[in-house]
Design goal:
Chains A, B: GO terms for molecular function: hydrolase activity. Chains A, B: Keywords: Hydrolase. Chains A, B: It holds the Pfam family Glyco_hydro127C. Chains A, B: InterPro entries: 6-hairpin_glycosidase_sf, Beta-AFase-like, Beta-AFase-like_GH127_C, Beta-AFase-like_GH127_cat, Beta-AFase-like_GH127_middle. The structure is a homodimer of 624-residue chains. Chain A has 624 residues and is α+β, with helices and mostly antiparallel strands. Among the domains of chain A are: 200 residues, no CATH class; 97 residues, Golgi alpha-mannosidase II (Immunoglobulin-like); 103 residues, no CATH class. In chain A, helix 3 runs parallel beside helix 13, helix 5 packs parallel to helix 7 and helix 9 runs antiparallel to helix 10. Chains A and B meet through helix 10, strand 14 and strand 20 of A and helix 10, strand 14 and strand 20 of B.
């Protein structure tokens, strides 16, 4: 199918089995995500801007623009990108919930950004002026192309929600400059992928073939070790193996996932099934062997990287928030490219566990890393905010990529819920939303989805507008064995997978899906050494956890797996023992016989942890 | 007791229950360590010097010395220290096995070093010249005092083995400059401790009180967060809590251990039991909760740091070689200060597992990190040598602190084996050695120790010289339940701990100790999540491991703990199953029933692994 360019969404492939719906076609109305979207718009955007103003990250554009500012640049070399990501988030938010003040703020930031752009289109506040390092003198670490990528994505968001304007002009000039500088005779790639997916989206928006060609070139020239050797190895940059030849995602998790997004985009636009297949295989294998149960990717703090297969420590799980955002981005691209609802299931898991957990209730704090096991109660301390300390959502960090990343995802979230195919609509994610769109044949159709998901499993899909036969496809998640569908006054069991209902729908008709959400034990693959002998408890798409504010010693916890977990509120209760722990001068020796009385233990959704105060937590529970 | 200053050893406290013996009083004659000492002298020293010449690290001294060299300094900011450590190692080696060529090379290097010293005594090739950053402008990362510390230790080694000479003059001038710059009115400390222990040893050598005072001041002023905030936290620098108030070793493992060495040295020289007790408690707790079974300390690659209590992942265990050397250094200091043989047992474990494993057979390659679990077979690759890749001992690295550190330890190793107390001699480490010394009352005594240790448990201690009654104390290791002592034609069981034998010894009398070294299963504390459900196999002081050159899939291994391990060569055989592993698209779900046939599996000493080619390995074996 050929997509129109008017779709208000971040990913609009020109072909593929599914057409995404825009944020104007799907509106989140309540339930799990509506308050999070509201907090994002009302608190997070302003909070991030305040910090970036305060720290001088927005001011960098003015300083280099008018030449009168201090020559001391503020922030890390990639701070421009945070400004762009917030502009992208503001643009989606203004599209979702129009606000003249927000609109004006975007314009003001655009002016600041435009003022920093060189005559020839080059744009960076870090490089290129006579008191700075030369342009592109440090491709490995300089992040110049990475930043431009986020600029392009911001311009795409702005243009798709408010029409062409000055930000698009800035972006086109920057993109043109990139194309001129990194033409076919050159070999350079950016240490941090991002420009690839951004150039494709700008090509989709503008119809400019050169942007697509440049993106394809960046994808193809990667993997030949043109970046300098580094102690983390070339895999860190994903410059170790050509994209087509790799078999698994590896190295720096966010770099790897962003590159994969760009490669899928290129593959879709160039009809390159080999490339698409290669990336899908890499992602599938990473999902099968290198992903935490929360959907978090990345095992290593040191290089923010994937571990080897099955190296997935729960304590100090890395699972960067940005990698979660990138996983949703990649899953969405693969869903659109393949039509395989498995990828929607992946996004479901990441969204309801990692993303929902990463952001503070007030939208003003976030996790950078998302551990699965917090052993010690950590009190906040002034100064020296650490990226790796679990249990504390920080208001801001020297590296604050994650908060703007969540912000742009939440502001555009409705575009991830429902797609159109040749015969109707597919509902991929269950959230309260109203859907209004046109089918491929031009018919106007509408749905209203109401659900207690993810806490509950009741999903009601009401036809709001129809006209003749079309299909509604629902996703029955992998875990939903025993699901029941109610349609046409008939109840019938449905197995995990796609349920396609083609009817001559009339407005008011309702489909009900009953997904079983009683809590269940989940065992890890025996190759995951770090959680051997443990079980997790899940409920629907939610991973649960045991949390202690000091009332329990979670190190002493043993769960009795002979008793099935029981539903309790939005969590579960399991039978557990707290065993007596013996200290010794050396922690290796004879096995100790230990005792403890069985007690009920309440488990809550993982995304809720560390909201009532500093606590200890564990997702993986040693079995008795 | 009051020690004389003529002892040829790196640690010579002026008081304490035990007097160390020098490298001239104890000579290693054969067995486990003699070939390693020989390779160290014949290969490692020259190998390290070649690399440092080639990379320009020694040349830095000449360049800044004659002013005619390139202004481009080579190597990292701490590369001076590697030169000093090799000079220290060469000095011990020349003392152990005199060699005019080695002597001349030390003198030549001393001239190079002296040429780079400023008029006022300041010495660094990284800072202070008009094209460099100002002196002490980056205490956190500049390593200036750290480097001076290693210079002082080199000078101590040279002076104790060859008498006072030009290197001592250089060291004294450098130490004087440190005392003048960091006097009582200042607050500075070096980001990397080392100067503390070095200043104390220089004070012991020279009798200069100001060096001791300066060391005490550096110890006392630490822990008040005077170093800049850092994303790893102040604990990284051990600048988070004053030394007297801390309860456990934490942060960067090597920094923490070096600081503890300096604090013990200060405590001993100033009769400060509070300080000594504080450090002993910190080390004891780290040993009980933050140490791998190999004796390796440090769980985290990211900040080369201790983890929280019981966070001891086997895969990607960090356990830096330098932390192993530092653990031996600290254990020796605590042994000398307290007389508690438990610390000798700690050194035993670290030496026979971590240290012996870190160095290549030819002395020309080394591990930086010492993992306990290698999942994938890694082939060597040119360029970009990574610090964190397990299974490959590298000839050299950009950060090559470990090889010179092992070199100085091995060259002075005999000084760690035997001590003198008020009534006689104590044998702490079992190795083939000849001991000749004088007791406190001036009597000449001698021992000959011959043993199959660590592979075997037979220890023969023959009196070589005597004269009147004195005592011989033997250490029965913690694991040696069922040990037997044979003395005076009598066999008797001895329990773990100290065996003190006071006799009117005559030359030729022999004591035999039979330590049981049949292999045994060892279980981890249940709080160590990373190895839950696993056992290790040990034999005497040796940790064993399963290694595969591709013949076994160690991920599929399950050990039958119902069958005791049996002795086989210097390793063991256990009953094991290799289970069938099922791949799936998501590694969490139902527990899988898996099968496999029981087969015998050979285990070898950990220190032997990765010597026959790239391999996979695991110390912790999942139990069936």
């Amino acid at each position: 199918m050929r997509n129109t360019q008017s779709i208000r969404g971040p990913v609009v492939p020109s072909r593929g089995p599914l057409r995404p719906l825009g944020t104007d076609e799907v509106r989140i109305t309540g339930g799990f995500w509506a308050p999070r979207q509201r907090v994002n718009g009302e608190a997070t955007l302003g909070h991030a801007l305040e910090w970036m103003d305060e720290l001088g990250w927005t001011g960098n554009f003015t300083s280099v623009g008018n030449g009168s500012g201090s020559r001391e640049r503020k922030g890390r070399e990639f701070s421009d990108s945070e400004v762009y990501k917030i502009v992208e988030a503001m643009s989606w938010e203004h599209g979702r919930s129009p606000d003249p003040a927000l609109d004006a703020r975007i314009d003001a930031l655009t002016s600041q950004i435009a003022g920093a752009q060189a005559e020839d289109g080059y744009l960076s506040t870090s490089f290129g002026r006579d008191w700075q390092r030369p342009r592109y003198s440090d491709l490995a670490w300089g992040h110049e192309l990475y930043c431009v990528g986020h600029l392009l994505q911001a311009a795409v968001a702005r243009t798709r929600t408010a029409g062409a304007g000055p930000l698009l002009d800035v972006a086109r000039r920057a993109a043109d400059h990139v194309c001129e500088t990194f033409g076919p005779d050159t070999t350079g790639v950016c240490g941090h992928p991002e420009i690839e997916t951004a150039l494709v989206e700008l090509a989709r928006l503008t119809g400019e073939q050169r942007y697509l060609d440049q993106a394809a070139s960046f994808v193809e020239r990667r993997g030949y070790r043109t970046l300098p050797a580094h102690e983390f190895g070339w895999s860190y940059f994903n410059d170790d193996i050509p994209v087509r030849k790799a078999t698994v995602l590896r190295g720096h998790a966010v770099r790897s996932l962003y590159l994969a997004c760009g490669a899928v985009d290129v593959a879709v636009e160039t009809d390159d099934d080999d490339l698409l297949g290669a990336v899908a295989e890499q992602f599938d294998r990473a999902w099968a062997r290198r992903t935490h149960i929360t959907g978090g990717m990345g095992s290593r703090h040191q290089d923010e990287a994937f571990g080897d297969d099955f190296v997935l420590p729960a304590d100090r799980a890395y699972a960067e928030t940005c990698a979660g955002v990138a996983t949703v981005m990649l899953a969405q691209r693969l869903l659109l490219a393949t039509g395989d609802n498995r990828y929607a299931g992946i996004a479901d898991r990441v969204l309801h566990n990692l993303i929902a957990g990463a952001i503070g209730d007030d939208g003003r704090s976030f996790f950078y890393a998302n551990t699965l096991h917090q052993r010690t109660i950590v009190q906040p301390q002034a100064g020296g905010e650490r990226l790796d300390v679990g249990g504390l959502r920080a208001p801001w960090r020297e590296v604050s990529c994650c908060l703007p990343n969540i912000a742009r995802l939440l502001a555009s979230l409705s575009s991830y819920l429902v797609t159109a195919d040749d015969t109707g609509l597919r509902v991929h994610q269950y959230a309260d939303c109203d859907v209004e769109t046109r089918l491929a044949d031009g018919r106007e159709v509408g749905l209203e989805v109401r659900t207690s998901y993810p806490e509950g499993g009741d999903v009601a899909v009401r036809v709001a507008r129809s006209g003749g036969p079309w299909s509604i496809t629902l996703r029955v998640p992998d875990w939903a064995t025993g699901a029941v569908l109610v349609v046409d006054h008939e109840r019938r069991p449905v197995a995990p997978g796609d349920v396609v209902l083609t009817r001559d729908w009339t407005a008011g008709q309702e489909i009900r899906l009953e997904l079983p959400t009683q809590p269940r034990f989940t065992w890890p693959d025996p190759r995951i050494d770090a959680v051997r002998g443990c079980v997790a408890v899940e409920r629907g798409p939610l991973v649960l956890c045991a949390e202690s504010l000091g009332d329990h010693d979670l190190d002493a916890l043993r769960v009795c797996v002979g008793h099935s977990p029981e539903q309790a509120g939005d969590g579960a209760v399991v039978r557990a023992r707290f065993e007596s722990l013996l200290d010794s001068s050396w922690p290796y020796g004879e096995p100790s016989a230990r005792t403890g009385t069985s007690v009920p233990l309440h488990l809550t959704p993982y995304h809720r942890w560390a909201r009532r105060g500093p606590s200890t937590m564990r997702v993986w529970l040693p079995s008795a």
